[in-house]
Amino acid sequence: QGQLVESGGGSVQGGGSLRLSCRASGYIFGFGSYCVAWFRLAPGQERERVAAIGSTGSQTYADSVKGRFTISRDNSKQTLYLQMNSLKPEDTAMYYCAASSRYCGIAFLAYNLRGQGTQVTVSS
User: Fold this and answer.
1) Among 16, 25, 11, 18, residue whose Cα is nearest residue 81
2) What is the mean pLDDT of the segment spanning 28-40?
3) Cβ–Cβ < 8 Å for 10, 62
4) Mean pLDDT for all residues in the chain
5) What is the distance between the alpha carbons of residues 56 and 67, in angstroms, rounded to a whole number?
6) CB-CB contact of 118 with 6 (8 Å)
């Protein structure tokens, strides 16, 4: 089964933008029907689901990122994206992608495919 690999993290000033990518490194049968999501973990805080796309294409966002972040997917490339605009210092965190054929909730460990994370640092 494929693995998920994130990329696109880095350091940016407040108000800037970053685009994260998450690619499946191996073939995942039925990837197009998977629920895919982005999570983030900041020091001293609990892991938070930032955004998700369900198997029907419905999108869900955390209140903290609504209007600033956009999740999307390209099933032909088995890749999901997170476009992050108007970044704030409080967006600083390690960002993780996850995918599951059976679960689309907020528990990161319940997703059967999980990436290793990419760091995003936003300076004021």
Assistant:
1) 18
2) 94
3) no
4) 95
5) 21
6) yes
